[in-house]
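README: folding subset

This subset contains proteins for which both the sequence and a predicted structure token string are available. Records are stored as plain text. Below is the entry for Cytochrome P450, family 20, subfamily A, polypeptide 1 (463 residues), shown exactly as it appears on disk.
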Amino acid sequence: MLDFAIFAVTFVIILVSAVLYLYPASRQASGIPGLTPTEEKDGNLPDIVSRGSLHEFLVSLHEKYGPAASFWFGRRLVVSLGSIDLLKQHINPNRTSDPFETMLKSLLGYQSGLSGDAAESLMRKKVYENGINKALEHNFNLILKLVDELVTKWAAFPESQHTPLCAHLLGLAMKSVTQIAMGDRFQEDHEVIRFRKNHDAVWSEIGKGYLDGSLDKSTTRKKHYEDALSDMETVLKTVARERKGKSFSHLAFIDTLLQGNFTEKQVVEDSMIFTLAGCVITANLCSWAVYFLSTSEEAQEKLFEELSQVLGEDPISLDKIDQLKYCRQVLNETIRVSKLTPIAARLQEVEGKVDQHVIPKETLVIYALGVVLQDNATWTLPYRFDPDRFNEESARRNLAVLGFSGSQECPELRFAYTVAAVLLSTLVRKLKLHQVQSQVVEARYDLVSTPKDDSWITVSRRS
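--- output ---
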């Protein structure tokens, strides 16, 4: 995922697997202000759980202690950075591995690509990114078709009918990702439904069960999770065997992996990472983007004008997406306001320093992205949805520092940007989006921010 990003539960895995626990009294927080452990064994974990999420805990932590703050997970010191200036200062020399991949593989019990061999990691990363890029090129018309089907469906709704964004756009993401990742097999609805059921079971436990330890306390939940993961792996193995050594008119992501020097196990694991992350990131980026546009008629009209000028009445093409500057501003602002990925982290491999604070080797450093994305010292009127702020080069640079654009933009996010651009280019040229009055949409912050309840809009046809 993001070149430096590991989402909410990453710190659990790193702390348990990377280094041995130390007692709180054995390490000082290097002068960094923060909390003392609530409990000797769990540190500040009870405080995190009581706040509802790691993101919400970090918001309160930084409000009290400032941009650099510390807390304890178990018997380990954790340092959190909550300002753009501190994040710019924090340099980690390890740029060969993909931490989001590392996090997901650790959670899933996978070992492929985690050997620490820099050359192998770089090669695998290039093949992975190339696989997504090729799959997009070969299957762009599929995305157009799926989006057009959805927009046509919405256009047929009565103007008073409430449209559930999360349900519909997760369906769009799931159909796009499964077919682009694994090919024609997933043209069949029953295959997509089966995969979606298993995907939801696995992702929900990754997002919550590992953080609070509740998964291991429930044999029923753990079996449901393990059965779902096993069924997904069985499907991926079957697809890999069906497609190995064969050529297809539409290249799928898995085909590029099969052409590489990878074992079946490696192919299955990399395909699992793409399908898991790709579905959730794409669905939530699309859902938040459509919701925020429904709250701003001005933004809709600016986007409509750009689409008319760049595309005319023609469908969008892959090479035209980069010309849609305002569309990208809308998506950037969507990520910022929704705090799409609120947490990232790095293990401090060598002793480091931010401002006057020394960060000891093997300290876990949390990047409080959700805090930074709505910091009023960085963003004017931070809680306002305002795509025009990304007219400024400084705003674009800040987003790049956080890993949401530029060289650190992850392949799954790039895939999500593409699907979202196709969706908005089709939707806004045909329909006007309207807020449902008195609706309050709140976010749930796990690995990716998601509306707690489905968000709704109404639509009307453009004259």
